[in-house]
Design goal:
single chain, 4-stranded antiparallel sheet
């Protein structure tokens, strides 16, 4: 079949030299065929007439009116659901291979007779008017930190006019993460747009009694401090944040490409990985400098002092030696029971203070009703009350490595009891007071050799050998020697 491209090539060759034979060969057609198309003066696409007949009988002809009626009443119905309904009504008439035919017919009907669709209107972005911030999942990049999978988000700050961007590593869509993302980007940019736009995340907004969303107090204060006006997209209208949403995919595509060039997805630290993705962004921003200059020319200089990105929460330690922070439970040293603590909640960690003195820092739990209990905080009390271990709510945290779990199972081979629980808790107490890694190695060695992993057996392997102190003989000084030295010195 001759195509439009071939006929255009034929006519072009004929206009150059007029040789029909050469023109036909170069156009990839027979001389007679070339002559017919030259004489017709039309393209192949202009000679075809739409087919008005069917090559096979329409299997849905008898029930199509019912299908159209159902689609008219409920346009959101899918072809697969309608096909399953037809099979139920007429099992002898329809077979699974006809589903694709129904899908094509319904698609054609929707295009010709279906409801109107939402139209998206391309926007013209004014230089320096607004910035958009969004979070995108980075776990799909399959990054590892020292060989350990690293689930994370990427906070993404974008100027829609120039597409200048700046990424920040985050662990959640919290206010701390949003604050750090915005402030890091402004510090790098050195200028401030008039508006800052986000979606209706809880980091920036909250529900109002009238059903609308209002800005959180902390977020509104941050925007005022930075000199930007806050605004959000309409509820359920993510397309209004379309520029940053689109840029999310482009950023991750570039990161994947640079990871392939790097030859490894493993990094020594989170800071090392963050430097990598920011270097990727800087290389992309280098091609946007002309458009960025137009934005910088109309934006105000960034002079605001950086504000803390953490949230402060006051809590009191329970008699369980735990605190509750952002709907999650953490253990603290038992010496703090009953004390009031001040907690700084960062995006990735919490810092616990007592009377302005830092007591401990630990990774922050995400979500709700999680718990992070360190056996070192309560083992000193639990070893005195071993009966509490059997039904202790957080007992699974008292098996820090597989070797400890195997040791407990070996001690309780016959039947768990208070005596065997105490034996295991003493081993755990030894790990808390010496070195967990050394106790772990000792437990592994004992079980490989078939010995019972008791505290005494572990202690013999863990405690260093006693080294006898050397005996030193100290003589009495002769003071006359000092007199002679002084007399000689005076002379």
């Amino acid at each position: 079949m001759v195509t439009d491209v071939q006929v255009r090539k034929l006519m072009d060759e004929l206009s150059k030299h007029g040789n029909m034979g050469v023109a036909a060969v170069r156009a990839g057609m027979d001389r007679g065929t070339a002559r017919r198309w030259r004489d017709s003066g039309r393209l192949p696409s202009e000679t075809r007439t739409p087919r008005t007949y069917r090559t096979r009988q329409d299997p849905f002809e008898d029930d199509w009116d019912d299908v159209v009626a159902m689609l008219t009443d409920a346009p959101e119905l899918e072809a697969k659901s309608l096909f399953e309904w037809l099979q139920g009504e007429h099992p002898e008439r329809y077979v699974p291979g006809q589903l694709r035919t129904l899908q094509r017919r319904i698609k054609r009907w929707r295009a010709q007779h279906g409801p109107e669709k939402v139209v998206f209107f391309a926007q013209q972005h004014v230089p320096g008017e607004a910035a958009q911030t969004d979070f995108t999942h980075g776990t799909e990049l399959e990054i590892t930190i020292c060989g350990v999978p690293f689930p994370h988000l990427i906070g993404h700050f974008v100027l829609p006019h120039s597409n200048w961007e700046w990424p920040t590593l985050c662990r959640s869509e919290s206010y701390s993460a949003l604050s750090r993302t915005v402030q890091d980007a402004l510090a790098e940019l050195g200028a401030v747009p008039e508006w800052h736009q986000t979606d209706n995340s809880t980091a920036a907004t909250h529900n109002l009694p009238n059903g609308k969303r209002g800005f959180n107090k902390r977020y509104a204060e941050l925007m005022k401090h930075l000199g930007m006006k806050p605004r959000t997209t309409a509820r359920g209208a993510k397309e209004q944040n379309g520029d940053v949403e689109s840029s999310n995919g482009h950023l991750k595509r570039r990161i994947r490409q640079h990871l392939l060039l790097r030859g490894s997805r493993d990094f020594e630290s989170e800071a090392d990985y963050e430097r990598f993705i920011r270097d990727v962004a800087q290389k992309a921003n280098a091609h946007r400098q002309t458009a960025l200059d137009r934005e910088l020319a109309v934006m105000r200089k960034h002079t605001a002092v950086r504000r803390p990105t953490f949230e402060v929460v006051d809590v009191r330690v329970t008699t369980w030696s735990t605190i509750r922070v952002k709907h999650n439970t953490y253990s603290v040293p038992s010496r703090l029971i009953g004390e009031k603590l001040r907690v700084r909640v960062h995006d990735d960690r919490i810092d616990v203070f007592h009377a302005e003195a830092l007591q401990l820092s630990m990774p922050r739990l995400l979500g709700r009703n999680g718990h992070r209990v360190d056996y070192r905080d309560v083992i000193w009390s639990l070893v005195k009350k071993p009966a509490a271990f059997a039904r202790y709510r957080y007992r699974e945290h008292f098996f820090p490595t597989p070797a400890f779990r195997a040791a407990y199972d070996a001690l309780t081979t016959d039947e768990p009891s208070r005596r065997t629980d105490l034996a295991y808790l003493r081993v755990l107490h030894l790990a808390a007071s010496t070195s967990e890694s050394e106790v772990d190695a000792a437990l592994t060695l004992l079980m490989v050799e078939g010995h019972r992993p008791t505290m005494d057996a572990v202690r013999e392997l863990v405690q260093p050998p006693t080294v006898a102190a050397p005996e030193l003989s100290v003589g009495q000084p002769d003071l006359a020697a000092f007199d002679e030295l002084l007399a000689g010195g005076g002379a």
